[in-house]
């Protein structure tokens, strides 16, 4: 039973085009692996696509690579994915103050008026601290519970 599938070139190019449109990302030097219906992981190990698929067929492998993004209507970068690609992100970035970053990392939604709508990347100084969804007035928090600062 296969738990993942490697994405073909056309599918990877489609995802890269969406990432370019949303965040300005132009390069994904990873093998992309789809897990379930929505999650896409990035694999940069020494195994080829064929070797990885053969391994998945013969061994019970749960996960491969780092969780990169979730494919919904838009592409939502994971916490690790946003950090991994932070040097390429040039669009839909919102700079936060120290107080706002603290609230965000505690798992709270932010109430900020912003011209940016949809999925955005949040930064504090030079550090990407996550991805959220902006309605223009509220930014929904997607920081995983296990990564939040506890009060």
Helix and strand layout, with pairings?
Blueprint: E1 5-6, H1 9-23, E2 31-35, E3 39-43, H2 49-58, E4 66-71, E5 75-77, H3 79-84, E6 93-95, H4 98-105, E7 118-124, E8 127-134, E9 139-141
Parallel strand pairs: 6-7
Antiparallel strand pairs: 1-2, 2-3, 3-4, 4-5, 7-8, 8-9
What descriptive keywords fit this protein?
151 residues, Nuclear Transport Factor 2, Chain: A, 5-stranded antiparallel β-sheet, 4 helices
The largest β sheet comes out as: 5 strands, antiparallel
Cα-based radius of gyration, to the nearest Å: 17 Å
The helix content is 25-40%
CATH architecture assignment of the largest domain: Roll
| Low-confidence residue ranges | none
By DSSP, the count of extended strands is 9
Counted by DSSP, the helix tally is: 4
Structural class by SSE content: alpha+beta
> Alpha-carbon distance between the termini?
42 Å
What is the strand content?
A: 25-35%
What can you tell me about this protein's structure?
The chain has 151 residues and is an alpha+beta fold. The chain folds into two domains: 1-91, Nuclear Transport Factor 2, Chain: A; 92-151, Nuclear Transport Factor 2, Chain: A. Helices cover 26% and strands 28% of the residues. The chain has four helices and nine strands. The protein has helices at 9-23, 49-58, 79-84, 98-105, and strands spanning 5-6, 31-35, 39-43, 66-71, 75-77, 93-95, 118-124, 127-134, 139-141. Strands 1-2-3-4-5 form a five-stranded antiparallel beta sheet, with helices on both faces. Strands 6-7-8-9 form a four-stranded mixed beta sheet. Strand 4 and strand 5 form a beta hairpin. It is elongated, with a radius of gyration of 17 Å. The model has no long low-confidence stretch (mean pLDDT 91).
